[in-house]
Amino acid sequence: MNKSKHSYKEKNTFIVKLDNRQRDTWQGEVVWADENRTERFRSALELIKLMDEAMNKSAEAASFTDKTSAV
Fold first, then answer.
1. How far apart are CA 42 and CA 20, in angstroms?
2. Is 14 in contact with 32 (CB distance < 8 Å)?
3. Residue 53: pLDDT over 80
4. For the chain, what are the domain ranges?
5. Which member of 1, 21, 35, 61 has the lowest number of beta carbons within 10 Å of its beta carbon?
6. Which residues pair with 29 in a beta bridge?
7. Per-residue model confidence as pLDDT tens digits over 26-49
8. In what order do the strands lie in the sheet with 37-41?
9. What is the separation of C-alpha 60 from the centre of its chain, rounded to a whole number of angstroms?
Protein backbone atom coordinates (compact mmCIF):
# COMPACT_ATOMS: atom_id res chain seq x y z
CA MET A 1 0.00 0.00 0.00
CA ASN A 2 1.32 3.46 -0.89
CA LYS A 3 1.72 5.77 2.08
CA SER A 4 1.64 9.52 1.56
CA LYS A 5 4.20 11.67 3.33
CA HIS A 6 1.41 12.99 5.58
CA SER A 7 -0.14 10.62 8.04
CA TYR A 8 -3.63 11.60 9.13
CA LYS A 9 -6.95 10.22 10.14
CA GLU A 10 -8.54 9.06 6.91
CA LYS A 11 -12.19 9.36 7.91
CA ASN A 12 -14.25 12.23 9.25
CA THR A 13 -17.99 12.23 9.78
CA PHE A 14 -20.11 15.17 8.69
CA ILE A 15 -23.86 15.58 9.09
CA VAL A 16 -25.36 18.02 6.59
CA LYS A 17 -28.72 19.58 7.44
CA LEU A 18 -30.35 21.47 4.56
CA ASP A 19 -32.72 24.26 5.56
CA ASN A 20 -33.67 25.43 2.10
CA ARG A 21 -32.50 26.05 -1.43
CA GLN A 22 -32.31 29.55 -2.87
CA ARG A 23 -30.59 30.89 -5.97
CA ASP A 24 -29.87 27.31 -7.12
CA THR A 25 -27.73 26.46 -4.09
CA TRP A 26 -28.10 25.02 -0.59
CA GLN A 27 -28.29 26.73 2.80
CA GLY A 28 -28.11 24.95 6.12
CA GLU A 29 -25.63 23.65 8.65
CA VAL A 30 -22.91 21.04 8.76
CA VAL A 31 -21.98 19.16 11.92
CA TRP A 32 -18.46 17.80 12.22
CA ALA A 33 -19.43 14.82 14.35
CA ASP A 34 -15.87 13.91 15.42
CA GLU A 35 -15.41 17.33 17.02
CA ASN A 36 -19.07 18.06 17.89
CA ARG A 37 -18.73 21.36 15.99
CA THR A 38 -21.54 23.00 14.00
CA GLU A 39 -21.15 25.64 11.27
CA ARG A 40 -23.78 27.36 9.12
CA PHE A 41 -23.27 27.64 5.35
CA ARG A 42 -24.95 29.77 2.67
CA SER A 43 -23.90 27.88 -0.46
CA ALA A 44 -22.75 24.47 -1.60
CA LEU A 45 -19.30 25.94 -2.25
CA GLU A 46 -19.12 27.29 1.30
CA LEU A 47 -20.15 23.82 2.59
CA ILE A 48 -17.30 22.20 0.68
CA LYS A 49 -14.83 24.80 1.95
CA LEU A 50 -15.92 24.19 5.57
CA MET A 51 -15.52 20.45 5.17
CA ASP A 52 -12.12 20.87 3.51
CA GLU A 53 -10.99 23.17 6.33
CA ALA A 54 -12.07 20.59 8.92
CA MET A 55 -10.19 17.84 7.08
CA ASN A 56 -7.04 19.97 6.91
CA LYS A 57 -7.24 20.74 10.64
CA SER A 58 -7.63 17.03 11.34
CA ALA A 59 -4.53 16.31 9.25
CA GLU A 60 -2.53 19.06 11.00
CA ALA A 61 -3.52 17.75 14.43
CA ALA A 62 -2.53 14.21 13.49
CA SER A 63 0.78 15.45 12.10
CA PHE A 64 1.49 17.36 15.32
CA THR A 65 0.66 14.26 17.38
CA ASP A 66 2.97 12.12 15.22
CA LYS A 67 5.84 14.60 15.67
CA THR A 68 5.47 14.85 19.46
CA SER A 69 5.20 11.09 19.94
CA ALA A 70 8.42 10.57 17.94
CA VAL A 71 10.45 12.76 20.33
1. 10
2. yes
3. yes
4. 14-70
5. 1
6. 17, 40
7. 999 999 998 889 999 999 999 999
8. 14-22, 25-32, 37-41
9. 12
Binned at pLDDT 50, 70 and 90, residue 1 comes out as: very low
As a whole number of angstroms, the distance between CA 43 and CA 41 comes to 6
What type of residue is 1? Answer: M
Residue 9 and residue 62 in contact, taking contact as beta carbons nearer than 8 Å? yes
- Reported in sequence order, the residue ranges of 1-71 that DSSP labels E, i.e. its strands, are 14-22, 25-32, 37-41
The residues that bridge with 28 in the sheet, in sequence order, are: 18, 41
Give percent above pLDDT 70 in the chain: 72
Q: What pTM does this model have?
A: 0.70
Task: Reduce the DSSP state of residue 5 to 3 states and report it.
Answer: coil
SS3 of 29, please? Answer: strand
- Average pLDDT in the chain: 82
